[in-house]
Design brief:
Layout lengths: L1 E8 L4 H12 L4 E7 L5 E7 L3 H11 L3 E8 L40
Antiparallel strand pairs: 1-3, 1-4, 2-3
Helix pairs in contact: 1-2
Length: about 110
Amino acid sequence: MKQKIVVKVQMNCGKCKTKAMKIAAVAEGVISVAIEGKENDRIVVVGDGVDVATLTRCLSKKVGHANIVSVEEVKPKVNDDKPKPVQWTPCCQGPQLYITTMDCPEQPTCSIM
């Protein structure tokens, strides 16, 4: 089950943000990591089978105080709009191709064959 996890982490500097991103990225089952929020203090992790408690504990120990904000299931987008077939309408008449056959008399000196 793919899930989206939002964790609020106390990050005071750019180095802390980089460290938090690295910690979240190497966690098992993580697909993507991003930083969001008004103060860029929330880490958004999308993954399959991510252990939220372990991730939060690890962030708390190595970066700063961390709280779980939300955990929700990510549902795949259902595309109801089927692509419509494209109708080809030529804009102008192109050159016409005429196919003709030539009959060659049954002579051994025929140069076409």
